[in-house]
Amino acid sequence: MMINTDTLVAMTDANQNFSKVTHVVDENGMAVILKNNKPRYVVVDFDEYEIINEIRAARTLKVEQVADQLIEENMEAFMELAK
């Protein structure tokens, strides 16, 4: 995963100056907070958060639909295994 270096904020900076984090989010759409020099947290604009949640919900729905389809297509085998 590629991370824009302009979005990186050290945990210490985030703790001491959260307005810096919000400024990075306003400028870049997100801030990546580093813990022990590794990306650990992402702070995003609320509109972006809503989009992410919609994508996650759609993915969950898709997985459920595929599972239902597999069960339906293999019901005979499942019934046999249930004996």
The gyration radius over C-alpha positions equals 21 Å
How many alpha or pi helices?
Answer: 4
Query: How many DSSP-defined strands?
Result: 3
Q: Looking at the structure, what is the overall shape?
A: elongated
Mean pLDDT: 91
Distance between the termini: 47 Å
The spatial strand order of the largest sheet comes to 1-2-3
**What level of helicity do the residues show?**
55-70%
Contiguous uncertain segments of 5+ residues: none
**Structural class given helices, strands, pairing?**
alpha+beta
Quick summary of this structure?
The chain is of the alpha+beta class and 83 residues long. It is built from four helices and three strands; from the N terminus they run βααββαα.
Q: What are the defining features of this structure?
A:
83 residues; alpha+beta; 3 strands; elongated
